[in-house]
Amino acid sequence: MLKGKVAIVTGGTRGIGLAVVKKFLDNGARVALTGSRQETVEKALSELKDYGERVMGLWPDLCDPEAVASAFTSVKEKYGRLDILANNAGVSARDSLYTYDPADFSKTIDLNINAVFVCAQAAAKIMKELGGGVIINTSSMVSLYGQPSGCAYPTSKFAVNGLTKSLARELGKDQIRVNAVAPGVTNTDMVAALPEEMVKRISAGIPLGRVGEPEDVANAFLFLASDLASYVTGEILSVDGAAMT
Length: 245
Ligand code: NAD
Prior knowledge:
Blueprint: E1 6-9, H1 15-26, E2 30-34, H2 38-47, E3 55-58, H3 65-79, E4 84-87, H4 102-130, E5 133-138, H5 142-145, H6 152-171, E6 176-183, H7 189-192, H8 196-204, H9 214-225, E7 236-239
Parallel strand pairs: 1-2, 1-4, 2-3, 4-5, 5-6, 6-7
Helix pairs in contact: 1-9, 3-4, 4-6
The structure holds nicotinamide-adenine-dinucleotide (NAD).
Residues 11-17, 35-36, 40, 62, 88-92, 111, 138, 140, 183, 185-186, 188-191 line the site of nicotinamide-adenine-dinucleotide.
């Protein structure tokens, strides 16, 4: 479904991002993944060594426009083009408002909003020159309902939806589609660390009766990245088993 395409996946070293990287590679794309540290990027690349030169890794500071522009340009130089950006890197938060350190609030906002903007800007400049592309942001089901702690996280994901819908309107004329995937509770390291009883309780409240797997989410990324979604833009696609928490 992505033969000949080149993708960048931010936060591609583990969890949902790594599942998206594998899905894109298995569907014929060449992929550059980013992570926060060289060490985690190299660990992910060692897991993907069977894909050879079709996968590369980078670790720019995603909030630094110059570092991101230079990293994305190096991907275009290596693979000759850039068609897809999966803006996936993000951090969650659980702090109570009463004790929330404003510096922690800002850190979540920086990565979950500012970096999404910075990466979209760098990618769109390259895509526009090449005649089009696809940007897929990672939202969350909490972008619809909020959550009862860690208010920076849902706040950031509401902003991701706003950015997605606005950029879809702004970039349509350049043939750049912009969508978001909004996962529900997904079985990444964070969920794996929860007690089994708690996961059972969460699953019981989800109409489909289970938490999502990273691959469920990666399939939505694949659809939106592919030409099957050629007339889909400005959409927030929930992948949450109809959960409402
Ligand atoms: P994860 O913690 O397993 O992976 C996060 C990725 O982001 C890693 O690759 C990490 O290297 C990267 N990252 C973290 N901090 C970074 C930083 N400061 N700079 C650069 N990269 C950084 O997360 P995940 O659960 O796979 O989540 C991925 C995305 O999906 C996030 O945007 C998250 O908000 C969203 N999401 C996750 C869930 C879930 O249940 N797991 C639910 C809804 C939305």
